[in-house]
C-alpha cells in the first residue's frame, strides 16, 4: 500500500492493552483471592463490629458504665482444661457462644463467694426471657469438696474446677483486691471484656444488671440463645 506503513495498519497497543506476562497471572489471581476472602470475613464480622461500636462509641450523652471495661480485652484460653463436678475433663472453650457472668472462688465458698453466687443467680433471672443468652459460671480454684448446703443453689450454674495459674493469665482483679471479690463478664467470643466492682451489694447488682441488659441489647442482631456449636 503506497504511502502507508505498518504503524498505520497495526497501531501500537496502548499500555492498558499490553498482554500481561503469563508468569504474573497466578500472582494476580492469588491477590484477588485474598481480597475476596477478606471481604467475606468482613461481611461475617460486620454485625459483631457494629454492636460493639454501638455499645462502646455511640453512647447516649451522660451515660456511664457501672462495670469497668477491660481494654484490651483478654481472650479465653480455649484449650485450657477444666474439670466438671463429676470429674470429667472439659475444655474452657466449650463455654463460648454464650454471654458469661463469672465468679471465682475456693470450694469452701466463704461469705464473699456466697454473695457472688447469689447475685449471679438473681441478675440472670432478672434478664427475663433474655436469660437464656447468659450463663452464670463459678470457677472453683481448688480440689476441695463443695459445702453440701449450697448444692441446691447451683442447679442452674455451670461449676468447673480451674487451675489458679490459668485463671491469673485470663482474669484479673482491680488493684488491691482479690480475684474472688469480683464478677466478670465474658462475651460469646470468649473475650473477657468487663469487671464489676468488688463485693457488690444489692444496689450495685441492680446497676450491673443494667450493663448486662445493654450488652445483650447491643448484641441481639448476632447473638442467639444457646450455643451454636453445641451438639445434641
TrEMBL record:
InterPro entries: Thioredoxin-like_sf. Keywords: Membrane, Transmembrane, Transmembrane helix. The keyword Cytoplasm does not apply. The chain crosses the membrane at residues 35-58. Residues 1-28 are annotated as: Disordered. It comes from the Bacteria. Residues 15-25 have a biased composition (Polar residues). This is Transmembrane protein. It comes from Diaphorobacter limosus. The lineage of its organism: Bacteria, Pseudomonadati, Pseudomonadota, Betaproteobacteria, Burkholderiales.
Amino acid at each position: 500500500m503506497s504511502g502507508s506503513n505498518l504503524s498505520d495498519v497495526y497501531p501500537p497497543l496502548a499500555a492498558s492493552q499490553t498482554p500481561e506476562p503469563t508468569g504474573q497471572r497466578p500472582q494476580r489471581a492469588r491477590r484477588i483471592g485474598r481480597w475476596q476472602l477478606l471481604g467475606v470475613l468482613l461481611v461475617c464480622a460486620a454485625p459483631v463490629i457494629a454492636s460493639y461500636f454501638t455499645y462502646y462509641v455511640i453512647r447516649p450523652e451522660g451515660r456511664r458504665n457501672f462495670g469497668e471495661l477491660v481494654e484490651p480485652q483478654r481472650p479465653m484460653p480455649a484449650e485450657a482444661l477444666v474439670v466438671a463436678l463429676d470429674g470429667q475433663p472439659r475444655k474452657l472453650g466449650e463455654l463460648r457462644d454464650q454471654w458469661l457472668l463469672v465468679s471465682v472462688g475456693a470450694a469452701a465458698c466463704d461469705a464473699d463467694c456466697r454473695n457472688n453466687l447469689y447475685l449471679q443467680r438473681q441478675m440472670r433471672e432478672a434478664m427475663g426471657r433474655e436469660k437464656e443468652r447468659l450463663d452464670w459460671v463459678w470457677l472453683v480454684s481448688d480440689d476441695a469438696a463443695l459445702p453440701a448446703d449450697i448444692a441446691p443453689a447451683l442447679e442452674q450454674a455451670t461449676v468447673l474446677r480451674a487451675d489458679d495459674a490459668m485463671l491469673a493469665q485470663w482474669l484479673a482483679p482491680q488493684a488491691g483486691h482479690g480475684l474472688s471479690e469480683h464478677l466478670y463478664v465474658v462475651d460469646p467470643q470468649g473475650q473477657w471484656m468487663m469487671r464489676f466492682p468488688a463485693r457488690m451489694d444489692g444496689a450495685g447488682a441492680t446497676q450491673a444488671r443494667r450493663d448486662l441488659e445493654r450488652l445483650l441489647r447491643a448484641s441481639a442482631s448476632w447473638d442467639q440463645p444457646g450455643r451454636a456449636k453445641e451438639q445434641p
